[in-house]
Amino acid sequence: MASVRIRGKKTFAPSNYGRFMDDFDKSRFLDYFLLRNNLSPLDFKRWLFAPGMLFKDKESWWPGGRPRLHPHEGVDLRQFVDRHGQVHSLTAKTVIPAMYDGTVIDIFDDFLGKSILLAHGPLDQGLILHAIYGHIAPAAGLAINDTVREGEPLATLAATGKSDIPPHLHLSILLMARQAGPGEIRWESINDFAPGGLVDPLAYV
Fold it and tell me: Do 95 and 138 meet the contact criterion of CB atoms below 8 Å apart?
């Protein structure tokens, strides 16, 4: 598996998870997102976030939503603004690419669809970058232990079936000193790895 490149020479230790996000090269997720969805760079200016969509937000963003039991474990990508100021919403046809080369560790249910856990790494300092792509419909044939390449289509967004929660990608990033195994990470227990392991996904996308 290819290593994720890191800028700088700072030393990583478990107690320092999340402190050095600026030392990681951003992925080419956005480039591949545009490519896989037949969009031009001119079609995209920035992601649009409502309160509750960002990392560690404490409120929920859907209508009538209750405060979160735990701070938000990642980011929700639902809409973007183009260079003309027009707002575009992701749909159940939106294709989600892999951020980096990686291995499929797990595919499991979430309350809106499926989640895919990929191990991207190892990083130069020995940490394993794990990404959870949530609320999606995995690509046909994708299975645990499959190797995926950077930019490869992983999934489309799940059709949630809920009028108040439209299709969106939930993305969480965990840094761990070892590779997780199938069944080890679930949404119900992901905060067991916080605050050490969870970091802001916007540092990578």
Answer: no
